[in-house]
Automatic annotation (TrEMBL):
Pfam (any one): Acetyltransf_1
Organism (species): Streptomyces graminearus
Name by which UniProt lists this protein: GNAT family N-acetyltransferase
SUPFAM superfamilies in alphabetical order: Acyl-CoA N-acyltransferases (Nat)
Domain N-acetyltransferase: 1-123
Keywords, comma-separated and alphabetical: Acyltransferase, Transferase
């Protein structure tokens, strides 16, 4: 995938989370958009945050890091008074998010030439 599409104007205003090994090696990351940035990304109202850019290094998958990152993003959303969190999940990751309480809605769509579904979890 082209690394350039992973960066956007929202990075400067996002809440970023990072999972690190004890030696400081990054294991995973994600971000939360709020306010106007979240509205622009999800089309929802300002009471809904947008979880995005969730990634866990291959060597760290299966260790619960992805779930911990999602929970940290949800905690940040709660701290900001948000009522829900939306995300756009690759269809291969639907089960992961469903296990964390997210429900898919709307049709499949392509993002970066990969099939996705919108998902939401009330907080």
């Amino acid at each position: 995938m082209d690394e350039a599409i992973e960066y956007d104007a929202y990075d400067a205003v996002a809440v970023h989370v990072l999972a690190l090994r004890a030696d400081g090696t990054p294991l995973g990351t994600g971000r939360l958009l709020t306010g106007e940035a979240a509205v622009a990304k999800t089309g929802a109202d300002a009471s809904v945050g947008s979880l995005g850019r969730l990634a866990v290094s291959r060597r760290a998958r299966g260790l619960g890091i992805g779930a911990a990152l999602v929970r940290a993003i949800e905690d940040a959303a709660r701290a900001r008074g948000l009522a829900a969190v939306d995300l756009h999940a690759q269809t291969q990751a639907l089960g992961f998010y469903e296990r964390l309480g997210y429900a898919a809605y709307g049709p499949k769509f392509l993002d970066a030439d990969m099939p996705h579904r919108a998902m939401r979890r009330a907080l």
